[in-house]
Amino acid sequence: MNNYAIQGNFPVSGAGLGLRRELVKPLQQHTPEEIGFFEVAPENWMGIGGRLKKEFRSFTERHQFVTHGLSLSIGSPAPLDETFLKNLKVFLGEHDIRAYTEHLSYCSDDGHLYDLLPIPFTDEAVTWVADRVKRVQDILERQIALENVSYYAAPGQEIQEIEFVRNVLEESNCGLLLDVNNILVNSINHKYDAVKYLKALPADRVFYFHVAGHYVEAKDLRVDTHGSDVCEDVWTLLDAAYDHCGVVPTLLERDFNIPAVPELMNEIGQIRDAQTRWHERNKEQQVRHG
Q1: DSSP label at residue 95
Q2: pTM
Q3: Nearest residue to 161 (alpha-carbon basis) of 203, 191, 128, 132
């Protein structure tokens, strides 16, 4: 079982980009060297064949890849789909995928619900989710990471969100995909301090970061969309995340309203600039404490 996050060694490096199908052709013609790694949803690529599989394979042979799943439904009351997990294991091995991550939520019961729903923040749910994560890790024979998700209601809440997330990570011994945008969105929607929440997350369990854009519905309501540019408050919070965790591989998510590659590269450049700023701050601190 790999142990990237626990050992402090990340599965990938640099600044990454979510590889959507509409980006395959332009990036196949020219992949900017500033992109350190790619992320895909495995469900969108498992089982494909023909030309599309060859195109995808040409990427995975040349670049570092991670996957961010959509359908594991780790908090669901329904049984795990172990057939899916066995097929996923083959896919991850075939393409030398560096990490498999999923959402700390659920999206199915008897059938798919087509949304990411919040797991009740309870001690009972912690144990339920942790046991399922352990089973997933046993089948895949690797440590996975779960993402802190955005949510708009907390039904059945008995403990704080941060306590729930920390306890799931600890009890299951899984990693964390830290989504900086989701922290900001939740902090506004649920009225808590984003930096305080961030600093309470276990830095030694982080696999990599996500940054993304969101929609401002109202002053006190943000909607996680991945359909717009990353806002200034997320970039500021990313600096705080680096201060807490060090320079962590960071991926730009863009799921719709996808602009041309040069525009995406502007935001990749902002990630790289933030990483450079951290290195400069760290050097200054080392000199001061010489």
Answers
A1: T
A2: 0.93
A3: 191
